[in-house]
Amino acid sequence: MANFPFELVSPEKLVYSGSVSEVVVPGAEGEFGVLAGHAPFVSVLKPGVLIIKGEGKVQKLFVRGGFAEANPQGLTVLAETAVPLSDLGGGKLGQMIKDAQEDVEDAKDDATRLKRQTVLDALKATAAAIEADGRTAH
Questions:
Q1: Which pLDDT tens digit goes with each residue over 23-81?
Q2: Is 7 in a helix, a strand, or coil?
Q3: DSSP-assigned letters across all residues of 22-69
Q4: Among 48, 92, 108, 121, which is most exposed with the fewest C-beta within 10 angstroms?
Q5: Phi, psi of 2 (to 5 degrees)
Q6: φ and ψ at 75, to 5 degrees?
Q7: How far apart are CA 59 and CA 79, in angstroms?
Q8: In contact, 35 and 74? CB cutoff 8 Å
Q9: Is residue 79 classed exposed, middle or buried when 0-12, 13-18 and 19+ CB atoms within 10 A define those classes?
Q10: DSSP-assigned beta bridge partners for residue 17
Q11: What's the pLDDT tens digit per position in 91-138?
Q12: Torsion-angle region of residue 37: left (phi > 0), alpha (psi -120 to 50) or beta?
């Protein structure tokens, strides 16, 4: 399988830069995969798990906010939040879920509540994905 350049950038740092064979992105219109030579495409990110396949391993990160731009030369993802799933242990993800639940409860209008509920649902799905990975890793 052909490789292509990929960069994942958050406000804090360049999270990933390298040659990959595939990236699965949680887009607002649905999850999509990018391979080498992808047609030009831009998507808003929805909160979820981004999967990077390359350099002989698979990396999974929780991403939220931002957008992805694919073209025949590669893929760039700009994310407000990008955290490796492995870094979400030790209660960090649980705290993020608790904070998101409070945000939903504090919403002043339906549009805000819906946005915040989407984030909460994605965090819960991420927790389930991490748990499933833990069960299959043994």
A1: 999 998 989 999 999 899 999 998 888 999 987 889 999 898 899 999 988 999 999 98
A2: strand
A3: EEEEEETTEEEEE-TTPPPEEEEB-SEEEEEEETTEEEEEEEEEEEEE
A4: 108
A5: -70, 145
A6: -135, 135
A7: 16
A8: no
A9: buried
A10: 7
A11: 788 888 899 999 999 999 999 999 889 888 888 877 877 776 655 544
A12: left
Q: Where is 106: in which H helix or E strand?
A: helix 92-106
Residue 30: Cβ within 10 Å count: 9
Q: Which two tokens stand for residue 110?
A: 């339906």
Question: Residue type at 122?
Answer: A
In one-letter notation, the amino acid at residue 85 is L
**Alpha-carbon span 92 to 97, nearest angstrom:** 9
Instruction: Give whole-number Cα distances, 87 to 100, 113, 114, 136, in Å.
Output: 18, 27, 27, 18
The tokens for 27 are 């887009």
- Residue 30's DSSP bridge partners are 27
